Amino acid sequence: MPGSRVQDFYARSGSGSEIANRIIGALRAAAGSSVAITAETLAPFDHVHARGMAGTRALADLLAPKAGDAILDIGCGIGGPARWIAVNYPCMVTGVDLTREYCDAARELNAVAGMSDRVRIMEGSATALPLPDAAFDAAYSQFVLMNIADKAAFYREAFRVLKPGGRLVLFHLNAGPNGTPDFPLPWAAVPENSFLASDQETRSGLAAAGFQLLVFRDAAQAAPPAAVTEVQPTAGLHILIGEDFPRQRANVVRAEEEGRVRPVEIVAVRPA
């Protein structure tokens, strides 16, 4: 099943403790053994999506959470954006992710950063969220929908758990007009694990779930992909993802340049 294949792909990073220890060790190697473990210092390692910390800042600007809001991160990974948003806005963030190892790592990093009371992590599927109806003021998802075959279920579940008037912000990659990308990619080693929708399919899916679309725009000019180099820095996503990350990143950069994938920013609202 697609879900189990996705879990297997990400679980290759190791157990939750292995992931957390590797990240903390790399942070201390880069910044010194006395460095504070915070949402800010962890940022080079734990914003596991194409635009990194800059992307999370841009997403948070569109999300516009208020102090005390209940926020949902759908596909939270190891929790970097959830921790950063909880600190900077300040609000309560619940993260849901399909991969047990990532959930375990997120909880360990929350504990080390002193944020277990502000960021809750739950293992579960984005297409069957283990959450009650109308529980959240806003929700977001970054570079997750490429792994989800049943996007209609994703949109329905996001709509269900949002309060009336709640906002959904999505940053992800859609299919481009010029064919399929080369593999491996940061979200899939093989084509069978990658589910890229067209812009029209995305618009239709959100509307069918009941959302009112506020923003739908091409994000390529706002955040061009970073240059790919052969030399790995001390800090970076390769600490989590592994040695294949440069090849994955090169493939997605080339696919974007050649119009085979298309970064989009979306804001939708559940009508009041």
Summarize the structure in words.
The protein is an alpha/beta fold and 272 residues long. 38% of the residues lie in helices and 19% in strands. The protein contains ten helices and seven strands. It has helices at 2-11, 16-31, 43-46, 52-63, 80-88, 100-112, 151-161, 199-209, 238-241, 245-257; strands at 70-74, 92-97, 119-123, 136-142, 162-175, 212-218, 261-269. A seven-stranded mixed β-sheet has the order 3-2-1-4-5-7-6, with helices on both faces. Helix 7 links the parallel strand 4 (136-142) and strand 5. The model is unreliable at 223-233 (pLDDT under 50).
Q: Which percent bin holds the helix content?
A: 25-40%
Beta percentage is 15-25%
The 3D shape can be described as globular
Uncertain runs: 223-233
- Termini gap: 36 Å
Q: What's the story with the biggest beta sheet? A: 7 strands, mixed
Order of helices and strands: HHHHEHEHEEHEHEHHE
Strand line-up of the largest beta sheet: 3-2-1-4-5-7-6
**Beta strand count:** 7
Rg (C-alpha, Å):
17 Å
